[in-house]
Amino acid sequence: RYFARDGTPISPWHDVPLAAGSGGSAGEYHMVCEIPRWTNAKLEIDTAAPLNPIVHDTKDGRLRHVANVFPYKGYIWNYGALPQTFEDPHTTDRETGFAGDGDPIDVLEVGSALCAEGSVHRVKVLAVLALIDGAETDWKVLAIRADDPLAPQLNDVDDLERHMPGLVAATVDWFTHYKAPDGKPPNRWAFDGRPRDAAYARGVIAAAHEAWKRLVRAPTGELAL
Questions:
Q1: Burial class of residue 204 (count of CB atoms within 10 Å of its CB; 0-12, 13-18, 19+)
Q2: I need a labelling partner for 195 at 20 to 30 A (CA). Which of 54, 130, 167, 189 fits?
Q3: What is its EC number (predicted)?
């Protein structure tokens, strides 16, 4: 899936702004939806291809899908990315102890509506988890669409636990075990799988935005991932 604005091709990674406009509230960002909730296809922004389309990821020549790991069906949130962010694989995070995975920051959108593949939404950031995937830091930002009926009541991780009890625990459980059907060991977590609050999440996003700026301003003029 390619993207365009007023008929001109754009990159969903580089050309969609991170901040949700000057009129947006603090902590609101744009999210590019890659994978709608309850689906299984592993879709993602191709950071290496021109214009960075959303593609169906492959491994060993086969299209990738996540298994249904009881009691879950596919992805349990609308899964997407924050544009203009970069988890730098050359910089070790001083708190997690691991460098980034070389991708934009992942967003887990927890609202009531299903988001379409390739849709762009304003989201309110609530919390962040630090998955350790292999030997890489893979941040998972929990957020809700700003137009969701519940959004006014959700501002931080405590609100998320109050209004959606068990969702954070299910998120940690899902990411811990979702590769088990492929014969892989459980994933690990920084901070023992405990979420950090919205303020911490905004700091992670700000650092990833600065890393993206360094990436696109590389002296070679190329995106050297």
A1: buried
A2: 54
A3: 3.6.1.1
Q: Which helix (H) or strand (E) holds 9?
A: strand 8-10
Q: Are strands 120-133 and 106-109 parallel, antiparallel or unpaired?
A: unpaired
Is there a contact between 156 and 127 (Cβ–Cβ < 8 Å)?
yes
Q: Rounded mean pLDDT of the chain?
A: 93
Task: Determine the average pLDDT of the residues in 113-129.
Answer: 97
Q: Is the pLDDT of residue 193 over 60?
A: yes
As a whole number, mean pLDDT of residues 159-186 equals: 94
Residues 6+ apart with CB under 8 A from 149: 112
